[in-house]
Task: inverse folding
């Protein structure tokens, strides 16, 4: 890609380069909002900060899923879209419209008590609907359409999030917070499924490429797609069960057993990735350690359903939302801000510190289940670690959103595959 003319001397052109790649505005908004969500609740509520949606917990859940996570998913999907379909990167009016629709949704939630329900739903659905349209459109016109179904899969997932968000808002505004929270928990489980589908394929590809780059011919990544597909199917079954909300003890244990099977399948898949060796590379360590929270979180949720009282459901779900969802978002996005050294991606200190702090935040939040006497201290400690982690990460990430866009955004130089490598040198972007 040709460098922008005078990127430092021309501040206006440098600022305009924010819109040269979809990951720049969407990631920046998502990560900044990650700090605000937790700084507002639970940290800010103690100082009398006003509560949107008439309930701080509902606002917290809604914005974590449909504000922070959805913007990050959109940033990833639109950035990878060029590699998936062979189309030009999204920029200009379409990208600015997406950003404005996301900001309008955040404003609508803050003013939700003064808006009619229909207007609130429409404003909040606009970002997801527009994102799905862009993904479908690129898939239809891209030259790689017959081989790449990822945009369709992601677009359908985005439409599912729009339906879930609509159900959440209806339940929240009609005085059924229990139903809204159930929708939120289902959303976290659905995001875990998205991580399995996309991350479970991308991470071993990244590891395999790195092993070839360092000339480690003794170790090959062993891809186990059947284990990944089985885990995804079991999570889908559990998601269906929780959505139907069939609340008898026998069915609860069946959901737990299903999630237990999914967790064990993922552990078997991860073992084949050479995770210990991969953790020598900080960027890969972030991916592996973030993905590891998926089976841990599924085990925690399974334990709640199989042995009621062992771990509260809220604590178990936070393991998936903080550790898996936020951890993987940070780990993948960190590749966009990594330095390029001879074609290889090199992690910065902001990335390494941010990943470590998010891991500590997850451990602190999970500890609430086992040390309830210190629950308040642990929750506030986890919130503080979360905010600090994202702030540190943002400091390292912010310089990459201006100036010439380096592509591919999320991948380094590709290295020839060994014929015996089951992954065949595949890269997600």
Result:
């Amino acid at each position: 890609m040709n460098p922008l003319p005078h990127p430092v001397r021309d501040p206006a052109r440098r600022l305009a380069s924010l819109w040269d790649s979809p990951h720049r505005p969407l990631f920046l908004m998502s990560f900044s909002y990650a700090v605000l969500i937790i700084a507002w609740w639970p940290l800010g509520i103690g100082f009398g900060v006003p509560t949107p949606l008439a309930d701080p917990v509902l606002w917290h859940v809604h914005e974590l899923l449909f504000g922070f996570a959805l913007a990050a998913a959109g940033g990833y999907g639109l950035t990878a879209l060029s590699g998936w379909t062979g189309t030009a990167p999204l920029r200009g009016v379409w990208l600015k419209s997406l950003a404005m629709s996301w900001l309008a949704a955040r404003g609508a939630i803050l003013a939700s008590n003064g808006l009619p329900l229909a207007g609130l739903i429409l404003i909040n659905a606009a970002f997801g609907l527009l994102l799905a349209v862009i993904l479908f459109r690129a898939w239809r016109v891209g030259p790689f359409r017959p081989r790449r179904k990822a945009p369709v899969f992601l677009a359908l997932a985005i439409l599912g999030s729009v339906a879930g968000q609509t159900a959440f808002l209806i339940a929240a505004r009609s005085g059924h917070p229990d139903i809204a929270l159930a929708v939120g928990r289902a959303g976290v489980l659905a995001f875990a499924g998205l991580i399995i589908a996309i991350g479970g394929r991308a991470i071993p590809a990244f590891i395999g490429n790195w092993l070839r780059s360092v000339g480690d011919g003794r170790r090959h990544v062993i891809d186990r797609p059947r284990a990944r597909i089985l885990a995804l199917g079991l999570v889908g079954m559990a998601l269906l069960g929780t959505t139907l909300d069939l609340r008898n003890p026998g069915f609860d244990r069946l959901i737990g057993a299903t999630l237990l099977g999914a967790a064990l399948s993922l552990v078997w898949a991860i073992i084949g990735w050479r995770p210990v060796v991969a953790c020598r590379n900080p960027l890969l360590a972030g991916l592996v350690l973030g993905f590891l929270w998926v089976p841990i979180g599924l085990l925690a949720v399974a334990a709640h359903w199989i042995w009621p009282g062992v771990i509260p459901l809220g604590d178990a779900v936070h393991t998936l939302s903080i550790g898996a969802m936020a951890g993987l978002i940070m780990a993948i996005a960190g590749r966009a801000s990594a330095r390029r050294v001879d074609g290889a991606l090199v992690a910065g200190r902001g990335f390494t510190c941010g990943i470590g702090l998010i891991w500590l935040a997850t451990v602190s939040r999970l500890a609430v289940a086992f040390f309830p006497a210190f629950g308040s201290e642990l929750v506030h400690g986890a919130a503080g670690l979360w905010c600090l982690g994202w702030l540190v990460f943002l400091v390292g990430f912010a310089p990459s959103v201006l100036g010439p866009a380096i592509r591919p955004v999320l991948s380094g130089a590709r290295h020839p595959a060994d014929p015996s490598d089951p992954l065949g040198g595949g890269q997600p972007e």
Remarks:
- The mean pLDDT is 87.
